Protein: Ligase-associated DNA damage response exonuclease
Amino acid sequence: MAHWIEPHPTGIYVRPADAWIDPSVPRERALVTHGHADHARGGHGHVWATEETLAIMALRYGTASGTAVPYGEDIRMNGVTISYIPAGHVLGSAQILLTHAGERVVVTGDYKRRPDPTCKPFEPVPCDIFVTEATFGLPVFRHPDTGSEVDRLLTALHANPDRCVLVGAYALGKAQRLICELRARGHHDPIYIHGALERMCALYEQFGVAMGDLRPATGLPAKEMRGRIIVSPPSALNDRWSRRLPDPITAMASGWMRVRQRARQRNVELPLIISDHADWDELTSTIREVAPSETWITHGREEALLHWCMTHQMRARALELVGREDEDEG
Structure:
C-alpha cells in the first residue's frame, strides 16, 4: 500500500512529488506541518506551509523562502494532490493530506482534540494511511479538563496575595494558549511575560489572537509582582531571572505534569496538566474515527499504541523517526 510514500529516519519522503514532510535535515522541498523545532527547521530550499507556520518559521529560524497554503485548498506536485487540514495543535498547525494513485494518506504532525482559543480545531479526515503521533501514547495519560486546571492556578493566586504565580509554558503555543484560557476564565488583570515570549505573543496578536494586557516581566520591583501571574519558558523557572520574584509559586503547564517525578525534577509546586497533544483516549478514538486501512505511528510511545491497534485487528507499524520524543520546547 502507498509505495509512493516512504518513511525515513529523517522524515517522510513523497517520491512522485520529490518532497519531504517535516524533514529534520535541510531538503530542497519541504512540506511542514507546524513551527515546533522537531518538525520545522531552517535551511530548506523551499517550504510549503500555512501562512501562520511560515511566519513562525521566519521568526524562529530565519526561513525566507516559502509558499503559503491556505487550509482546505489543493496544490499539486507531479500528480500528487496536497491539502493542509487544521490539526488543532498550535497556531497554523496542519495535517497534510496526500492523494495519489487512488490512495489517501494523512500525516498529522502533532494534534489535539481539546478546544483551543488560539488555533483552528482538528478536523478528522478519512484516509487509507493515517500517520499519527504518540507523544502521550500510554493509557496513563488521560488529560483532565483544561478549565479545571486553569481554575487551580487562579485559586492558588487568590489564596496567596503576597506571592506571585510563575508558570513555565512552552514559547510557541502553550504560553499563548494559557494566556487566552486565563482570559476566558475571567482573569483580565495584566499578565507579565518573560522577554523570550514577547515576539511570539506579538505574532499571535498579528494573526488575530487577542491576549489582553501583556507586560514585560523584566526590570520591575518585586512588590509590583505580588498577586500577579508571570509566564516564562520552562527553562527560566529556576534560573537567576526568577530569583527576584516575590516568593513565587512555581507552576508548569504540560501534559508531562501527569508524571509526578517530572514535576519534582523541575521543583514545580503547582503542576498543571495542560497539553497541546492528544491523550491516550483521544489518540485511540481518532484512529477509530478516521478508520484507516493502516496506521503509522511516530513521535513518542509507539509500542503501546501499536499494541492497541493490533489487539483491535487494525494494521499498524511504528516509524521511529529521529528527534521526535517530547513536546518540550524549552
